[in-house]
């Protein structure tokens, strides 16, 4: 904590288990899982500070973030820079008075522009620039978010047509957005807003899986 650079930087061994790591008031990344830490599982943990750039940076492959919390990062609370990341449970949030970040969760970076096979099922709060930022289209992924925000978009960028994306929002900001891969519908995959689709039960002759 209170580092002039990063909080926790983990570069291995691979397949490690980190239990309840805590990082706060750091000026760089809160918790950074670098290449070499592939297959690491994080159980719990909390990374927070208005000063940190990212609360969690998942740069290695096959990482798991389970029941963790990321709070008030400048750019994103979770940055996914490696393939096959899993983020389940926990909460990722900022405050309206903070510098608006680039989405609570960001998939892909300029150095890792092509990310795939990401699975996310978590909650975001007060991310007024979007619950998630598809810097990378995140091909062949499954992403499910419950979010609260009184303003702003549900997401930034465009997810891949091969990705299943579900956003359940409340608070007034872009309530419901669904996308299912083309194979799930007889007429092809597409974005649609359930809130404005009266009596929706499916598209064509198919229903969501």
Give your account of this protein's structure.
The chain has 209 residues and is mostly beta strands. It contains no helices and 18 strands. It has strands at 8-10, 17-19, 22-24, 31-33, 41-43, 46-48, 54-58, 64-66, 69-71, 76-80, 86-93, 105-107, 119-125, 132-134, 142-148, 155-157, 164-170, 176-179. The strands form two sheets. Strands 2, 3, 5, 6, 8, 9, 11, 13, 15, 17 and 18 form an eleven-stranded mixed β-sheet that branches. A seven-stranded parallel β-sheet has the order 1-4-7-10-12-14-16, with no helix packed on it.
Distance between the termini: 44 Å
Annotation, overall tally of beta strands:
18
Q: How would you sum up the major sheet?
A: 11 strands, mixed
The topology string of helices and strands comes to: EEEEEEEEEEEEEEEEEE
Structural class: mainly beta
Query: How many separate helices?
Result: 0
Extract low-pLDDT stretches: 185-189, 191-209
Radius of gyration: 17 Å
Mean pLDDT: 83
Approximate helicity band: under 10%
Shape: globular
Estimate the strand proportion: 35-45%
Could you name the key traits of this structure?
single chain, about 210 residues, mainly beta, 11-stranded mixed beta sheet, globular
SSE topology sketch:
Blueprint: E1 8-10, E2 17-19, E3 22-24, E4 31-33, E5 41-43, E6 46-48, E7 54-58, E8 64-66, E9 69-71, E10 76-80, E11 86-93, E12 105-107, E13 119-125, E14 132-134, E15 142-148, E16 155-157, E17 164-170, E18 176-179
Parallel strand pairs: 1-4, 2-5, 3-6, 4-7, 5-8, 6-9, 7-10, 8-11, 9-11, 10-12, 11-13, 12-14, 13-15, 14-16, 15-17
Antiparallel strand pairs: 17-18
